[in-house]
Amino acid sequence: MSDLTIAAAQSVSFKGDLCANIARHLRFIERAADQGVELLVFPELSLTGYEGELAADLAVDPQDAVLQPLRDLARELRVTAVVGMPIRLQPHGPVLIGALAMGADGSLGVYSKQHLHTGEERYFAPGEGGSALTIGGETVALAVCADFTHASHAAEARRLGAQCYAAGVLIGEKGYGPDSAMLQGYAREHGMTVLMANHGGETGGWLSAGRSAIWAADGALVVAAPGTGNCLVVARRRAGVWQGQVAAVPEV
Description:
Blueprint: E1 4-10, H1 18-34, E2 39-41, H2 52-58, H3 68-77, E3 80-87, E4 96-102, E5 108-112, E6 133-135, E7 138-144, H4 151-159, E8 164-169, H5 173-190, E9 193-198, E10 202-203, E11 206-207, E12 213-215, E13 221-224, E14 231-238, E15 241-248
Helix pairs in contact: 1-3
């Protein structure tokens, strides 16, 4: 079992302000690099906020030049960063909830949310998922929020060889207990490390619970944020043993 450092970027999004959110994401990537993080996962729709009514106007092609600063910094600092963004895969195609993997090697991976929450169909179409990532020799399957509420999603990830299951989410206080228990259960049942990156504050009229977390493959909690706010939730595996840390992320 190789050494590995992964992190959840618990970020607070600026409503619909792509430029401000990119600046904040760049700061998170820099902080993650300081911590030796190899994989950094942001919450659902982190670059715009969970703003369905704005999504059609904000949606971009994943290759759009506006995202290039994120790709450049990820490559420069050797951090694979998975960011949340409304996307279109064709110029006049449907709007999808994307998780874009800015690779440490300069690559771009595109994952689109497969399972929508009730009401999201007003603004988004269901996506088709995407390929797993390889981080430090480990296979990482991605999920976006409601994806993980379908047990078949995590089971299929494990069947395809995933050793880590990483979800960018928006979970409020009411849903935090059952949702975190579900994710912890996947870690135990499938023998996968599970990472949950939650929003750090209010977005789209929803008050996030924060408390982003990472569980080891036996279901043991490695680390969790104590509450809301911007922070980096880091888990390091050395010689098969996990240790966790919550690191502050200074404002830009």
